[in-house]
Amino acid sequence: MCGIVGIYNFQGKAVDEKLLLRMRDTLAHRGPDGASFYISPDKKVGLGHRRLSIIDLSERADQPMSNEDGTVWIVFNGEIYNFQALRPDLEKRGHRFKSNSDTEVIIHLYEEYKEKCLDYLRGMFAFAIWDENAQKLFLARDRVGKKPLKYFIGPDFIVFASELKAILKHPEVKKEPDLEAIDEYLTYQYVPHPKTGFKNIFKLEPAHYLIVKNSREIIKKRYWRLNYSKKIDLPEKEWEEVILEKLKESVRMRLVSDVPLGAHLSGGIDSSLIVALMSQETREPVKTFSIGFKESDYNELSYARLVAKKYNTEHREFIVEPNAVEILQKLVYHYEEPYADSSALPTWYLSEITRNHVTVALNGDGGDENFAGYTRYNAMKIFRQLSILPFKSQFKKLNQLIYEITKIKLFQKGYRLLDSYSADPLDFYLKIIDYFSQKEKDLIYTEHFKELVKNSRWHSFLREKYNDAGNFDWLDRILHTDINSYLADDLLVKIDIASMAHATEVRSPFLDQEFLELTAKIPSGLKIKGHNKKYLIKKIAEKYLPKECIYRTKQGFGVPLDHWFRGGLENYLRGELLDEKFLNYGFKKEGLEKLLQDHKSFKQNYANHLWALLFLRTWFKTWFE
Fold it and tell me: What's the pLDDT at 559?
């Protein structure tokens, strides 16, 4: 697990070694264990690497790494879990290995199969290969987007890195905000790929590779996609057995490590089941780590303790009492793109305490996308029922009135559900998940800003993913959409940035390629049965977990923003959002004041909206002021 950077000058201009090293060392947090670089003989290509040592801790596994004759060079960030299985065949084909690393397996696979080498890799990865003989740069990213790779293409060069803060070190990369991306961010809480929030700096999309030979020959191609159309008709019990065996295999593969290893334990089904299966595979107690808040509504530590006790784990937990202003500055720097998922905050602290004890941790990411765990999936299921519900507007107003009186969030959700009704299923879904609706944007955007962002993909991005699903059934289309949007650009960004800021590697068994391909074949009726979400994985979990951890309301990694913004952070929030510099980007003071007042008076819970704006305000200050 590492940080990678590179420069390729198309016209033969020599790579500036000092610049390459500045870029590389901007990513020192991703790789504190080693640093090296390579510049090609003709000096037009430079590769830099910061190493976090996980597999083969010796110098033989240092990067950049080459093949036997030095004609193929690689910088790689990630883990290939099946590298030991791939190596014998490569040795039979005559390839000689100098290390026990997974990196070297990729090099020799590329020599054998070129771009098709990606078909053999089971893991998380972002890498760059320079092929001296073909004069070709080959960039690739893993199937679901666990590992990041960003790039900028100039008139006569390309520069790439794990994080764009390294790209910004290049003197020819201009630093400008992409306002259309900002509008998309305020819709989704993240910047949808391939944008980053910075003009002309892009993310390589998950499951894509990029081939660069020169400024006139740049090819980007998708190499993998999930297929939900090939369902398998098995009895329910047989499905339980098949899924469990594949999940066990996925966990087992992720326990290979030459450094200490543990698990993130939230107390939910997914992370708890991973801990249970880990406990069956290891002799020593699993090291588990949990995080909570002093506000009881946002604290799930009691469930994590139940699992830790059942499996006798070496358990550590931490109550977060953050200095939100101080931590916000760190989050904005490390996340570097506008990013409004507030669960980044506890994830940051969880990564911090994890690093004090282990270098690698497994987690439960991907369980909801595999088995339909989000509440919004049930909302989509009742979508057709809403069409025949009479007096929708009256029910909507009643829910809002009850929320204002009782402050119970369930009624606010009811209001939002009814307010979101649309005859188009995707429009309905977007209204459920969006942060700022178009009505709310109209409240806070100036007319000038609206004109600047008129070509935003706030709607078309999600529709493209939805339409790409083709003729899948309604649930599979939504799962496909989320895996190619929310999972890739939000959840996986959250854990990569927070963990790598603390030089920690996080592995996700539920996101194993073969496991994803298997769960795509499960009939939708075994994922949501009635209105019981995650039906099949819950049945499996009954064999391993206390029922209190399985059959409870899904809480998520929530943050008490609503309390903070009506309490100690209210004055700070107001000062930041109503600052003249922020307003000058295109925001209306009276609209922002209405959001602040409606939140304070409990007329609406605008906590997520206000956090998104506060993050954006801090982002502008950090990167452009």
Answer: 79
Q: Mind listing the domains of the chain with CATH numbers? A: 2-222 (3.60.20.10), 236-372+470-550 (3.40.50.620), 388-455+559-624 (no CATH)
> Would you say 75 and 128 are in contact if contact means Cβ atoms under 8 Å apart?
yes
Beta bridge partners of 32: 51
pLDDT computed for residue 431 by the predictor: 84
**Which residues carry out catalysis?**
2
The Cα angle at residue 377 between residues 520 and 557, in degrees rounded to 5: 95
Pick the closest to residue 400 from 416, 379, 387, 386 (CA basis): 416
Which pair of tokens denotes residue 315? 């358990």
Q: What is the C-alpha separation between 582 and 617, in angstroms, rounded?
A: 6
Secondary structure (3-state) at 453:
coil
Positions of the chain with pLDDT under 70: 295-298, 384-423, 554-558
Q: For position 321, what pLDDT does the model report?
A: 78
CA distances from 38 to 21, 30, 74, 209, 527 (A): 10, 19, 9, 22, 49
Strand runs labelled E in 254-331: 261-264, 287-293, 314-320
Note the pTM of the prediction, 2 decimals.
Answer: 0.92
> In degrees rounded to 5, what are phi and psi of residue 455?
-100, 15
Give the tens place of pLDDT for each residue, 352-363. 999 999 999 999
pLDDT of 389 reads: 54
Q: How far apart are CA 369 and CA 202, in angstroms?
A: 25
Residue 340 and residue 328: Cα distance in Å, rounded? 11
Q: Are 261 and 359 in contact (CB under 8 A)?
A: yes
- Separation of alpha carbons 108 and 94, rounded Å: 10
Place of tokens 């209105």: 531
| Whether 162 contacts 5, CB under 8 Å | yes
Question: Residue 403's pLDDT is what?
Answer: 56
User: What is the distance, to the nearest Å, from the Cα of residue 503 to the centroid of all Cα atoms in its chain?
Assistant: 17
Q: How far apart are CA 429 and CA 468, in angstroms?
A: 16
Query: How far apart are the C-alpha atoms of 237 and 3, rounded to whole Å?
Result: 44
Interatomic CA distance for residues 415 and 232, integer angstroms:
39
Is residue 29 within 8 Å of residue 503, measured between CB atoms? Answer: yes
541 class by beta-carbon count within 10 Å (0-12 exposed, 13-18 middle, 19+ buried): buried
| Distance, CA of 315 to CA of 183 (rounded, Å) | 42
Strand 136-141, strand 157-161: pairing: unpaired
β-strand partners of 139: 128, 210
Give counts: helices (H), strands (E), the chain.
Answer: 29, 17
DSSP 604: S
Burial category of 185 from C-beta neighbours within 10 Å (exposed 0-12, middle 13-18, buried 19 and up): buried
Query: Distance between CA 149 and CA 496 in Å, rounded?
Result: 12
Asked if 465 and 225 count as a contact pair (C-beta separation under 8 A), the reply is no
pLDDT tens string 111-145: 999 999 999 999 999 999 999 999 999 999 999 99
Contacts of residue 467, defined as CB under 8 A and 6 or more positions apart, other chains included, come to: none
Rg (Cα) of the chain, in Å, rounded?
A: 24
